[in-house]
Amino acid sequence: MEPVTLPVDRVPPPARHRYDHQPRLVFWETTKACPLACVHCRAVAQPAPAPGELTTDEGIRLIDELGAGPPPHPVLVLTGGDCLMRSDLLQLAARARAAGVPVAIAPAVSPRLSDDVLASLRSLGVRHLSISLDGATAATHEGVRQVPGHFAATLDAISRASALGFQVQVNTAVMRANVEELADVAVLLRRLGVRIWEVFFLVTVGRGTDVREISPGETEDVCHFLVDVAQRGLVVRTVEGPFFRRVQTERASAADTAGSPPGSLLAHLRSALAWGLGPPVQPVVAPSFGTRDGKGVIFVAHNGDVFPSGFLPLPLGNVRNGGLLDLYRDHPLLRSIRAGELSGRCGTCEHTDLCGGSRARAFAATGDPLSEDPACALVS
Ligand code: SF4
């Protein structure tokens, strides 16, 4: 049989970048308990643990499974709620270290995030920590987090964690309330010495259904702005915004790397960024691979239910009934997502492998997790 020649932009990525065998990131919602009540919370967190949360032994079984295969093992991201509300957090971190499973933590900023706890986690090999910052001012951030003084506490937590040797990633959810001050957030991150910025494009689940989203045109502007930020030396990642990789690719291959004429939001953000961080210091770099819900990413909820991501509420199974990795490898929906068996514009798009759209947003909009992502400018 003659080999099939594919156009270069439709050649499947190498197996390790398709994440067919195992995910790159396993998010474990260790508890629903959290001292905060953020307006966009996916988890609809609550003050106390929910009934039926995975026990220590069940968590250890999950960790051991991730560490059982040949390295590199998936990174286990301990989220919540607030993972610091788990009394066995240090025990779980120690077990992960013994199993060779890298751990990242995503704690809430509260009095529980003390230097003692941070130092203990560092001593157990935990190096990556993410902290949410939802604005460049106290008014904006605290409008989201609903806790007076939380902005200053967050900046302090970032500084303390960095000083203790953590690689700190800052997470920002983009919404109408903060989109105009994203450049100021980037400047603030530089001042704090943060190198990794993860920008989350809202999907209307959990408390996020009460938050005003931005339009597809503004989303495109934000993506171009984030390419500009990356040119200033920050590592930019997105959550539920895989079309950012399409914009990066287009910009990297364009003769004019600024892209098409900016919308008013982009013009505003660019001007504030240039004022705060000066001109670009590096070229636009095209990404070579990417993850999306169910492709490189899997989510284990507090009660063991498994989902393609924390924003796609379609249960696939439960770790109490079987192995997570078998479920990840074999579930028909995840196989379809990884194979790019998508419909609508995402199904015909030349960027399907690299982007593929947010499966969570497609599901929220249509009820079909394989349909097109309505936030993408190519769709609308
Ligand atoms: S149409 Fe779909 S696959 Fe193409 S860039 Fe937009 S979101 Fe990505």
Task: Please describe what this structure looks like.
It is a single chain. The protein has 380 residues and is α/β, with parallel strands linked by helices. It has a single domain (23-326), classed as Aldolase class I (TIM Barrel), CATH 3.20.20.70. The chain is 36% helix and 13% strand. It is built from 14 helices and eleven strands. Strands 1, 2, 3, 4, 5, 6, 7, 8, 9, 10 and 11 form an eleven-stranded mixed sheet that branches. The N and C termini lie far apart (41 Å). The structure holds iron/sulfur cluster (SF4). Residues 242-243, 246, 345-346, 349, 351-352, 355-357, 372-373, 376, 378-379 line the site of iron/sulfur cluster (SF4).
In short:
With 380 residues, this protein is α/β, with parallel strands linked by helices. Helix content is 36%, strand content 13%.
The best one-word shape is: globular
The major beta sheet can be summarized as:
11 strands, mixed
Instruction: Briefly note the structural class of the backbone.
Output: alpha/beta
Rounded radius of gyration (Å): 20 Å
Beta percentage is: 5-15%
Q: How many DSSP H or I helices?
A: 14
Query: Based on the structure given, which CATH architecture is correct?
Result: Alpha-Beta Barrel
What small molecules does this complex bind? iron/sulfur cluster
Question: Helices, strands, pairings?
Answer:
Elements: H1 15-18, E1 25-29, H2 56-68, E2 75-79, H3 89-99, E3 103-105, H4 115-123, E4 128-132, H5 138-145, H6 150-163, E5 167-174, H7 182-192, E6 196-201, H8 216-230, E7 235-239, H9 243-253, H10 264-277, E8 292-293, E9 296-300, E10 305-307, E11 317-318, H11 324-330, H12 332-339, H13 344-348, H14 359-366
Parallel strand pairs: 1-2, 1-9, 2-3, 3-4, 4-5, 5-6, 6-7, 8-9
Antiparallel strand pairs: 9-10, 10-11
Helix pairs in contact: 2-3, 7-10, 8-9, 8-10
The structure holds iron/sulfur cluster.
The site of iron/sulfur cluster (SF4) has 16 residues, from helix 9 and helix 13.
